[in-house]
Protein backbone atom coordinates (compact mmCIF):
# COMPACT_ATOMS: atom_id res chain seq x y z
CA UNK A 1 0.00 0.00 0.00
CA UNK A 2 1.32 3.40 -0.93
CA UNK A 3 1.87 6.16 1.61
CA UNK A 4 -0.80 8.45 0.12
CA UNK A 5 -3.36 5.61 0.37
CA UNK A 6 -2.53 5.12 4.06
CA UNK A 7 -2.99 8.83 4.66
CA UNK A 8 -6.41 8.77 2.96
CA UNK A 9 -7.51 5.78 5.09
CA UNK A 10 -6.36 7.48 8.28
CA UNK A 11 -8.12 10.74 7.38
CA UNK A 12 -11.35 8.91 6.47
CA UNK A 13 -11.16 6.90 9.70
CA UNK A 14 -10.64 10.09 11.68
CA UNK A 15 -13.69 11.72 10.04
CA UNK A 16 -15.82 8.67 10.85
CA UNK A 17 -14.73 8.68 14.49
CA UNK A 18 -15.36 12.43 14.80
CA UNK A 19 -18.78 12.03 13.15
CA UNK A 20 -19.80 9.27 15.58
CA UNK A 21 -18.63 11.29 18.59
CA UNK A 22 -20.49 14.41 17.43
CA UNK A 23 -23.65 12.36 16.81
CA UNK A 24 -23.64 10.85 20.30
CA UNK A 25 -22.87 14.18 21.97
CA UNK A 26 -25.77 15.76 20.07
CA UNK A 27 -28.14 12.95 21.04
CA UNK A 28 -27.26 13.13 24.71
CA UNK A 29 -26.80 16.86 25.25
CA UNK A 30 -29.32 18.47 22.92
CA UNK A 31 -32.06 15.86 22.60
CA UNK A 32 -34.65 16.12 25.35
CA UNK A 33 -36.43 12.87 26.07
CA UNK A 34 -40.02 13.03 27.25
CA UNK A 35 -39.14 11.30 30.52
CA UNK A 36 -36.94 14.28 31.42
CA UNK A 37 -40.07 16.45 31.53
CA UNK A 38 -42.06 14.27 33.95
CA UNK A 39 -43.28 16.36 36.88
CA UNK A 40 -42.53 19.72 35.25
CA UNK A 41 -44.88 22.62 34.64
CA UNK A 42 -47.90 24.25 36.20
CA UNK A 43 -51.14 22.26 36.03
CA UNK A 44 -53.68 23.97 33.76
CA UNK A 45 -56.42 21.40 33.25
CA UNK A 46 -57.30 17.76 34.00
CA UNK A 47 -59.16 15.34 31.73
CA UNK A 48 -60.54 12.06 33.14
CA UNK A 49 -60.81 9.06 30.79
CA UNK A 50 -64.32 7.71 29.97
CA UNK A 51 -64.13 4.81 32.48
CA UNK A 52 -62.13 6.84 35.03
CA UNK A 53 -59.02 4.65 34.67
CA UNK A 54 -56.61 7.48 33.81
CA UNK A 55 -56.28 11.21 33.97
CA UNK A 56 -54.53 13.36 31.39
CA UNK A 57 -53.14 16.60 32.72
CA UNK A 58 -52.19 19.65 30.72
CA UNK A 59 -49.17 21.46 32.19
CA UNK A 60 -47.64 24.75 31.12
CA UNK A 61 -43.85 24.89 31.46
CA UNK A 62 -42.98 28.54 31.83
CA UNK A 63 -40.20 29.91 29.67
CA UNK A 64 -37.49 32.34 30.59
CA UNK A 65 -35.62 35.16 28.87
CA UNK A 66 -34.37 32.86 26.11
CA UNK A 67 -37.20 30.31 25.80
CA UNK A 68 -40.95 30.51 25.23
CA UNK A 69 -43.52 28.60 27.26
CA UNK A 70 -44.03 24.90 26.50
CA UNK A 71 -47.05 22.58 26.66
CA UNK A 72 -46.80 19.17 28.33
CA UNK A 73 -49.49 16.48 28.61
CA UNK A 74 -49.04 13.69 31.14
CA UNK A 75 -50.90 10.51 32.09
CA UNK A 76 -51.51 9.19 35.60
CA UNK A 77 -53.30 5.96 36.51
CA UNK A 78 -56.24 6.38 38.85
CA UNK A 79 -57.06 2.76 39.75
CA UNK A 80 -53.64 1.38 40.71
CA UNK A 81 -52.26 4.27 42.78
CA UNK A 82 -50.17 5.49 39.86
CA UNK A 83 -48.17 2.30 39.41
CA UNK A 84 -48.77 2.00 35.65
CA UNK A 85 -48.48 5.71 34.84
CA UNK A 86 -47.41 8.38 37.29
CA UNK A 87 -47.27 11.81 35.63
CA UNK A 88 -45.72 10.25 32.51
CA UNK A 89 -45.19 12.77 29.71
CA UNK A 90 -46.82 11.71 26.43
CA UNK A 91 -46.95 15.02 24.56
CA UNK A 92 -44.56 17.99 24.44
CA UNK A 93 -45.05 21.06 22.27
CA UNK A 94 -42.84 24.12 21.88
CA UNK A 95 -43.63 26.90 21.74
CA UNK A 96 -46.86 26.91 23.68
CA UNK A 97 -49.96 28.09 21.87
CA UNK A 98 -52.96 29.91 23.26
CA UNK A 99 -55.05 26.79 23.82
CA UNK A 100 -54.96 23.00 23.67
CA UNK A 101 -57.70 20.75 22.28
CA UNK A 102 -57.58 17.53 24.31
CA UNK A 103 -60.21 14.80 24.41
CA UNK A 104 -60.35 11.12 25.25
CA UNK A 105 -61.43 8.86 22.38
CA UNK A 106 -61.54 5.86 24.75
CA UNK A 107 -59.65 4.77 27.87
CA UNK A 108 -56.50 4.04 25.86
CA UNK A 109 -56.48 6.83 23.29
CA UNK A 110 -56.24 10.60 23.58
CA UNK A 111 -56.69 13.05 20.74
CA UNK A 112 -54.42 16.04 21.31
CA UNK A 113 -54.53 18.80 18.72
CA UNK A 114 -55.83 16.26 16.19
CA UNK A 115 -52.97 13.82 16.88
CA UNK A 116 -53.91 10.34 18.11
CA UNK A 117 -51.88 9.30 21.17
CA UNK A 118 -52.25 5.70 22.33
CA UNK A 119 -51.13 5.82 25.94
CA UNK A 120 -49.77 2.25 25.87
CA UNK A 121 -47.75 2.81 22.67
CA UNK A 122 -44.78 5.13 23.14
CA UNK A 123 -44.29 5.30 19.37
CA UNK A 124 -47.38 7.53 19.21
CA UNK A 125 -46.14 9.97 21.88
CA UNK A 126 -45.35 13.44 20.56
CA UNK A 127 -42.03 15.22 21.07
CA UNK A 128 -41.84 18.38 18.96
CA UNK A 129 -38.10 17.81 18.50
CA UNK A 130 -38.76 14.50 16.76
CA UNK A 131 -41.50 15.58 14.35
CA UNK A 132 -41.39 18.04 11.47
CA UNK A 133 -44.64 19.85 11.15
Question: How would you sum up this structure in a few lines?
Answer:
This protein is 20% helix and 33% strand. It has one helix and eight strands, in the order H-E-E-E-E-E-E-E-E.
Give an account of the 3D structure.
- This protein has 133 residues and is α+β, with helices and mostly antiparallel strands.
- It has one domain.
- It has 1 helix and 8 strands, in the order αββββββββ.
- It has one helix at residues 3-29, and strands at residues 42-48, 54-61, 70-77, 88-93, 102-106, 109-112, 115-118, 126-127.
- Strands 1-2-3-4-8 form a 5-stranded mixed β-sheet, with no helix packed on it. Strands 5-6-7 form a 3-stranded antiparallel β-sheet, with no helix packed on it.
- The N and C termini lie far apart (50 Å).
- The mean pLDDT is 87.
Biggest β-sheet strands, sense, barrel: 5 strands, mixed
What general form does the structure show? elongated
Total number of strands: 8
Alpha carbon gyration radius:
21 Å
Q: Roughly how many Å apart are the termini?
A: 50 Å
- With strands numbered from the N-terminus, the spatial order across the biggest sheet is 1-2-3-4-8
Provide mean pLDDT, rounded: 87
Structural class: alpha+beta
Helix content: 10-25%
Share of residues in strands: 25-35%
Q: Poorly predicted ranges (pLDDT <50, ≥5 residues)?
A: none
Whole-number total of structural domains: 1
Instruction: List SSEs in N-to-C order.
Output: HEEEEEEEE
Supply the number of helical segments.
Answer: 1
Amino acid sequence: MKDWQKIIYYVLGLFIVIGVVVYFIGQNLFDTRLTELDGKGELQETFISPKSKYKAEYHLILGDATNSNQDRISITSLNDKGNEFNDKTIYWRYPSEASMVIEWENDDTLIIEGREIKIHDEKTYYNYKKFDE
